[in-house]
Structures are given as structure tokens and as C-alpha cells.
Specification:
heterodimer, A: about 10% helix, about 50% strand, B: alpha/beta, 2 domains, two-stranded antiparallel sheet
Amino acid sequence: MRSTTKVLILIVFTFSLSTGISQEDTTRQGEDFQYLFNQKKKKKDREPKEISDTLSLADFYDMSLEELEDLKATGVSSELEKYINSLISVSTQKSLPSRYSPNIVTLVTEEEIKSMGARDLIEVLQLVPGFHFAQDNKGNVGLGIRGNWAAEGKVLIMINGKEINEHYTAHTYFGNHFPVDMIKRIEIVRGPGSAIYGGLAEFGVINIVTKKPNDLNGLEFVLNQGQMGEGVGRGKFNFYVGKKWERSDLNFWFAAGNSQRSNRQHYGFYDCSIDSIICQDSIGVGAYASLAGESDIDNFMSNFEFNSGGFSVSSLLDYYGVTDVTVLDSRKRRPVKRGYFSSYNEIKQRFRITPKLTITPKINFNIQTPVEENTPYAEALINHPEFADSLAIATTRFRARVDINYNLNHRINMLGGFDFYNDFALNADTISQFYSGEPPDQYSSTAFYGEMIFKLPVFHLFAGARFETNAAYNSAFSPRIGITKKFNKFHLKFLVTDAYRLPTLGNIYYSFDGTYDVAPDSSYVYNVGRGLNPEKTLVLEAEAGYQFSEKTFLTLNIFDMTIRDPIVYTFFQDETIRDIYGYNSGLYVYQNFNKSGTRGFELDFRFQDKWGFLNANYSYYSVSSKPKISAYTVSTFNRDPRERELVDDDVLLAFPQHRLNLNWLYYITEDFSVNLNSSFIGSTYGYDISIIGPGPWDVDGKLIKNRFTYLVNFYFRYQNLFTKGLAAGLGVNDVFNKGTSYMQPYFGVQPPLPGASREFKFIIEYKLPFKNKKRNN
Amino acid sequence: MFYTASQYNLFVKKVILLWIMAWFCCNAVMAQDVDYRAQSLYIYKFSKYVFWPEETLQGEFKIGVYGNSPILEELQLMASLKKGANDLSIRVTEITEEDDLTDYHIIYIPSSKSRQIRDLTEKVGTSPVLLVAEREGLATKGATINFLITENMVLKFEVNMSKMADQNLKISPELLKLGYEI
């Protein structure tokens, strides 16, 4: 009997193994259409004739002969090969395998996002080599790349190819902002993209691609909940509907919810402008108070998109409101919220003039307006509706762009086009505190770009440039040369780019050239001199990658960035301003500094198999041999830059010199997975407050060092739970409750901003595909 | 439930047989799981890097699939996107009994029709028709080009150079570097 039982078990095991393998293949293939070397699908399943906009089937057939060397025959490319050979278009606007693209790139897949139970895009992006988040003013969080603060318009953020950086100052903030549950993949350039994309792509490009009807022809609902020790961490609801017809498709999604930045204690400054009691009674500078329930981040984002043939129309709405955790009322509450509402609209038509020539004109019209709660500005709007016309603040951007793609022959591709935009700011000067005179309320910018791709037998050569001119500042020019080469399992890249960052309307308005006049009675300053030049960055990069086996891949890249005329948001103060406005007063302004930069390397290891994957990456940067500017250096606290003493000449404020990320996914069964991801973060420097007296202005700062810390998160996910399409997951973020903080990456008096503490999360997803109509014949 | 020794032996034999069948079934499924998009990519490259006599490149570039094969759909999809030699529009059809095979520029012979390679070769004769097959050994039996799968599952091809010359076709050295001459 025992033997019989063993034999029966053997049979069951054998059959389950064989069916398990085939089932797993089919399931996982469904997400892999974009992979170049793996197009296995059963005939009846082959619906996606048209690949999403960045992954064109025509490009697949345009592959050079050299790229066919490793073309898989049977659709059984290893999981890793699917990943490393995936087509990426964000680098050149032409789909190329990532190992050939002229940038250092990272692709984040839907599988990675779903399996880690991401609550927020921060969780996803902080696992990207060289990425680290830091604190900007008013409780906002932005991105730094390779040790450089990038949130001030130096990293281009796109959703489905649409630029969504804020117009006025080009900031993009993170934290409950982007709908992680609606993302299909994220294409990331960890280096400059100005030669193609222009002024906001100086340090990097992030293109978030959301689900399309090719991915899901049906409905999807996702509920994402989090619970911190004290109070709700977050709650977000996502809805998607996509419908596909023979030649057209339509999709709509929205994500809405609220989250808390943290539940920890944070120092806030009493603000007289929001609570008159503070003006009457001196209660000190500020106080520590909990952020639980007092650090709301609200977001609503929706997207509508219709495609028919080469025509596309889309509209994206984004409301983002962040509690200003830096200010308190007399009850130690944080009533102020700031944010903006944006509408991004686009019409695009792709004309296939000849099989070799494609022209794609597109028009964008965006409008943004700040949204404030419990500020003097908000009160004025409420109490004086008759002045609404003169108080309403809005910025608009009209953009017309034409992209031309010409395939001269199988070896030479030519890309080019022009890009025009006009920015207009309505009543933006009403938020001015110091300035007088006529600020620029609009400007136009015109750019031309072009790139040649030579797929030579010995290597791929990329040579391109973008020239941009604007009446408000000097013109800018960004050339790029890249050489990429793949020999069997090995690849090499050598890249040189001179990127730029253009000043925005807000940058110019708040710019400061160091000159001003003082009123005769010495009661105020006026005629504050404005002026900014484009910031430029010379970036040298090299990458070597080797595929050790079907499952193992390692890349190493080194970089050297030298930033000329960096545009820095900084606190300016001198004796005159102190005398007039007080000891702690000064101007927060944008200025061109001299030179800055970092150099370092990033190591990225991937082991991927049918059971899941193990990714590990390590990032390092140094500034010891690079020029430095006082606003970013690790120095003692002193409002006068000349009096600061350098404490560490090898690192910059807020960004750790060392960072190691691990991300491990294991499929316990075909449907049940566990993810464990962790970040080991080296020491970071920043400033904290130092109270020097009981008075309302008796505050100073001090340099602090946050020692090495780590974050560990895990998440269990079960797909096809009870019924096909239903998935649920449970997990914990920051298991050891280390409570990381965001430092401010430039000189200022902002204590570290606490991040979320340990949080239990629960996500439930349900996909409901539309049924295909049965054919009568 | 009890078995006699003979019943038990029989049972064990059945189980072993089932095990072997399951194993082969599993492997067979994988082996048959050919990526026809990859083959269609190569066939598109053949249209660009194999040279036909100029007089044959008139009207349309014709690709015929002999018999029923999933590659037909792939090739039709490719034809809707790309042009063939001399920028001719590509037309992909399933070959019928009545068709004149010499009208085609490329004829694809699925593995299920491999036995008919000799008939096809005779019908085509020395006309400039590229016969593309997908079963091992067919390049020596009449196919001009035959797809191969290497040990690491990479798609390659072998080229019968004498057959190529007989049919008045030429192949570019760049393309030939990816395959094997026989």
C-alpha cells in the first residue's frame, strides 16, 4: 500500500508539474507582450495586435541583423532575458532593447509593483539605483538622483509620454501622488535626456505608462489600505475601464485617496498668519507635535484616453494637496494645506507618410492653479469673492510639438522635430512677499532637436542635439553622443551628454542676481535684481553589463556629472536684510551658483527565474574631487555662507553616499507570492532646529547626522483568490520600525521630515475582463 | 484495497507508462511551442537581404504558406506593416492546389508538410523562389533555407548555397553571417 501511495503521489506530482509549468507560462506570458524575444501566445489569445504607444511592432521588424543574434526560437526566453531585452523607447523615442539604448536605463514592471504591494511610487522608485528622496519646503518630498537634488525641475516626469512637472517652478513632488495600482511599467533614464526632451530632463527621465486596453479589455478595481500604529496610514481607491475595438480603444481610470506622511513627532513653527492668538501672545517659536492625522496628503488623479488608428486624444486631471507640516496654530494643529490642481490635455496624430517616414504632431494644453486651505490667500478668496478675478492664480502651457522619424535604411534612423511652448502666469505676483516691479507673466520657447542612430556592424552610434531659445534667458544647447555595443552576453555603453535645465517663469520671478536697493528710510528693500541663466550639466557615463547565465545579469555603470551655473533655491540673507526684517529673515530665492557635481557608480544585479527574482543594487557617489557650492555642502550651520565650516567634503546634504537595495520575489505557488524588499541607507546629513531663546524668532539651526539605517518591507499576495481576477495581499512596511526621515538637501532651517513608520497594509484587486463576442460564422 | 503481485506489477507498469507519457507530453508541448513571430521577423529580413532577379520584382512581393500554419497570421501582420524587396507591398497567402508556385518569391513549408518537400522542389524547379522550411535536414532535401534551433534555444538558419545559386538567388554576406552554409 505504501508503494501504491507513493506511486499515486508520483503521478499527481508529475501531472501537476507538467500542467503547472504550462499554466505558469501562459499566465506570466500575459504580461510580457512587450518583451522582444518572447512572443509566445496561443492563437486564440492573440489579441494585442497593436502594441502600446512606446512599443511598436514596426520597430520589432526594424531590428538590425546584429540584434537578431540571440533571437529566441521557441518563446522560452528565460524570465531574465525577457527583462533585459525588453524594448524601451524613453531614451530615444524609438523602441530599442535596453542594452542598446544610449542611456543608463531601468525598467520597472507591473509584476514588481504589484508583488511588493506598493502603497506609493516612492516605495517603487527608492529601489532604483541612485535614487533617494529628500525634503523640500512646506513638507513636500522630492527626488534626488546620484546625490544631486533633482526635484527642482531637473527630472522630467511623464505619464504616458505627457510631461507633468508643475509649470511655474517645475517641481514634482512625491508621496501619495501617482497611482501605483494603475501602472503597467515605468521606464526610467538614470541620466540626462535633454537632447530629446529639453529643459526638465537634465538629470533623469521617468515615464510612467499606465494600463491600456491591450493590457486589460475590461474593468479593474483596487483598494489600497494602510494602518500605522496611530491612525490610518492611507486609503486609496482605483478604478479602471478599458474597451478595445478593432481599430480603436478607449480607457479611463481614476485614483483617489488620502494618506498620512507620518505618525511621528515633528517640529512645527507657530504661524501668526494662520492664528491670531499667536500674534497676540508670545508662545515661542514652535513645538513638537504628532503628525498622526495632521499630515494629510490628498490626491485625485484621473485619465481619459481615446486612440483610433494613429489619432489619440487624452486628458489627465491631477489634484494634489499636501499639509504644510512646518507650521502650527496655537493648538499645535496643522491646518494649512497647499497643492495644485492640474489639467493636462493632448491631441496627437501619427501620420505614416511612407513606410520609412512617420510624422507625429501633437498639441498640449495644460492649466494649473494652486489650491490652498487656511492660508491668508485662501481666506482672502473666501472673504472677498468680489476680488476673485484679481486673486485667482493660474498658469497655462500651450505646447506644439512635431516628432519626425525617418528610417533611411536598416542601418540608419533619423529622429527630429521641433518643440514650441508658451507659458503664461495669471496673477502669480500676488504670492510675492518681497518683490516689486513687473515680473514676467509669460514667455515662449522654441526648440529644435535631432538624432541620428547608426546601427553599424561594429557598434551602435547615437549622435543628437537639441537647441532651445527663449527671450527670457540665454539659449541652451544639448549635444549627446553615445556608443553602445553588444557582444553575445556582454554589452558596453559610452555616453557623453551636455544637458541643460531651463529657468521657469517662477524661477525667473524669484530669481536674484545679488543686487537690490534700500528705501531711503531703510524700511524695506526694492528693485531686487532678477536674472537666471540655464543650468548646464556635462555627464560622462559608461556601462558594462554581462549576462552570466539565462538567469543572472550584472551591470556596472560609472558616471561623472559637472553642473555649471546650477540653479539653486536657497536662503539669502545679509546684514542689510537682517537689519530691516530681523535676525532670521531673508529671501528664499533662485540663484545661479558656480559649479557643483558628483561622480560615482551603480551596480545592478538581477537573478530572475520562473519562481520569481532577486534584484540587488548598490549606489555610491562622491563629491571629494568635484566643485562644491555652499548651499549643498555638509557644513556647520551659519546663515552667512562665508562663515560655514566644511564638515564632510565627500558627501552632500540629504543624500547618502552608500545605498543598497534588495528586492526578492518568490512564487510559493503559481498564485501565491511573497515579496521582501529592503533598503540599507548610509549616513545622511541635514539641519535641525536649535532653540536659542523663548522669543518667536529665537531659533537657529544645527548640522545633524542620521546614522546608517534600513527599511524592511514584506508583502504576501494571492492571485485568483476564490475566483479568477481577484487578488488580495497583506504586508508590513518598515517591519523594524526604523522610521526613516527626509532631510533637506540645501541650506535651511527645516528639521528632518519624518517618513511613515511601521505600517500594515492590505490591498484588494479585482479584474473583470469583458467577454469577447462570439462570431456567428 | 489489496493487489495481487501480478496486479501490482501491472499497476506499476501503467504508472511508469503514464509517467513517461506525461513527461513526453510536457516536453512535446514545449517543443511545439515555436515562436512564429521570430520566424516571421527572419522571413522579413530574407525579403531584404536575399536578392531576386530584377525582372521578378514587379507588382507585389508574394509570400506563400504551404498548408495551415500559425505563421500565416504572423506574416500577414508583418505584411500590413512592412514592405518587401524593392519596396514592394508584401502579400501573404495560403497556397492552394491551383496556385502556380513559381509566382511566389518565398514559400514557407511548415513542418507538417515536410514530407512534400520533394514535390514542391520539383514544381518550383530552378525558378527564383526561396523555399523556407522549419524541420531539421530539409536544407539537404530541397529547401533553400531551413530554420534551426540551437542548443540554447536561439533561432538560426542553414542555407543551401548550391540551391540558392541554382535558383538564381543571392544572399547578402551580412545575413549569411547569422546562419550556416551547407
